[in-house]
Amino acid sequence: MNTSLDAAGGPTPPVAHPPVPDVARRRRVARLGEAGRLAVRRLLWAVPVVAAVSVVVFLLGAASPFDPIYQYYGARIFTASAADVAQARQALGLNDPVWSQYADWIGGVVTGDWGISRAYRQPVVQVIVERLPWTQLLAGVGLALAAGLALLVGVFAAWRQGGWLDRIVTALANALEAVPAFLLGLGAIGVFALALQLAPAGGLSAPGDPLTAGGVARHLVLPAFVLAVSQLPWLILAVRQQLLVTLAEDNVTAARARSLSERRTVWRHALPGALLPYVTTLGGRLPEVVTGVVLVEEVFSWPGVARAMVQAGLQLDYPLLLALTLLATAAVLVGNLLADLAVLMLDPRVSSDG
After folding, report:
1. What is the Cα 269 distance to its own chain's centre?
2. Position 315 pLDDT exceeds 70
3. Where are the alpha helices (DSSP H) in 64-97?
């Protein structure tokens, strides 16, 4: 290490240089390699998980006391002849052993044929393709709104720990934890849609109106807000707790000792340390988000795949119910993977082998 002499004849301390660009680039490449290996491992692990879920759901459907032929015929079952019913059962493969039915279903999945939805009288793939974008829109906006509000409110609550804002926020968060999403939705409709008439009560557009971006945005406000509120309690309390931990760390104490403003200390030194656990918390909330979307879509008549799952369950639509269950499982696995990848890329202390 090179040193030089100062005016008094003593050695001057070495000057700290920024990392060499090649070194920084190699670090980024190595980090991307770790992220790629993590993604490959998780995706390979997801295959047997999804397969196991499909087997369980298929066996539960086969063990159900409800005969799918009744749902297939509907009211016509009472006028259909025994020969016609027997022929339909044979055509649908309902007389085959369970393992044979499952093998036929797997073969159809590989070729893109997920069966016919008995509730919607459409191919299952078509039902999902038509409704999945609306669910993605609602879930994306609701989760983004919840994440942003929770981060803002949680920071101010921890910053003013013990103050009136912290007490109110903590009390409301603990109270809202016990309120289900469908009850929040009904209350929001009663207050904002019926009493105040500030937002539509449901659907994508008003009856008879064409589907436009502005109309969809107006109808999205209330269900997205309800979905966000249903997730806020856990996220707010998580941000608050994580920030309280980082506020007691040595780097924050050192920042305060340098007479930095409290605002700068919180936002520049304490908050970054709380963000990484917060990202992990967001990933862990994805199963509850899926459940919340199901309830919110049903309350607000939102035409997404979550509402189709409810209809599939009510009408014993096993092909659609199986496909949507696997879709929800895959969504949770992918969401957790994305959260872990974000933590891996943001924190150099985290290893993909952990």
Report:
1. 29
2. yes
3. 68-73, 82-92
Report the alpha-carbon distance of residue 257 to residue 259 in Å, rounded: 5
* Contact predicate 50/326, CB 8 Å: yes
pLDDT digits (tens, 9 = 90+) for 234-260: 889 888 888 888 877 777 777 777 777
CA distance 288 to 231: 8
Look over the chain and give the mean of its residue pLDDT values, rounded to a whole number.
Answer: 80
Which has the closest alpha carbon to 120: 130, 106, 110, 133?
A: 130
Pairing of strands 116-117, 122-123: antiparallel
Identify which of 191, 202, 165 has the alpha carbon closest to the alpha carbon of residue 297.
202
- Count other C-beta atoms under 10 Å from residue 145's C-beta: 17
Three-state secondary structure string covering 107-166: HHHHCCCCCEECCCCEEHHHHHHHHHHHHHHHHHHHHHHHHHHHHHHHHHHHHCCCCHHH
Please state the domain extents for the chain: 24-65+114-346
Amino acid at 142: G
DSSP 192: I
Amino acid 72 reads Y
d(CA 116, CA 96): 18
Length of the chain: 354
- Residue 5's beta-bridge partner residues? 11
Nearest to 327 by CA among 312, 316, 344: 312
Residues paired with residue 122 on neighbouring β-strands, in sequence order? 117
Contact assessment for residue 141 and residue 186, using Cβ atoms and an 8 Å cutoff:
no
Contact (CB, 8 A) for 231 and 288: yes
Q: Which amino acid is at 94?
A: L
CA distance 311 to 119: 7
Span 24-65+114-346 CATH architecture? Orthogonal Bundle (1.10)
pLDDT digits 0-9 by tens, 74-129: 667 777 777 777 777 777 667 677 788 788 888 888 888 888 887 788 888 999 99
CA angle, 339 then 340 then 346, to 5°: 90
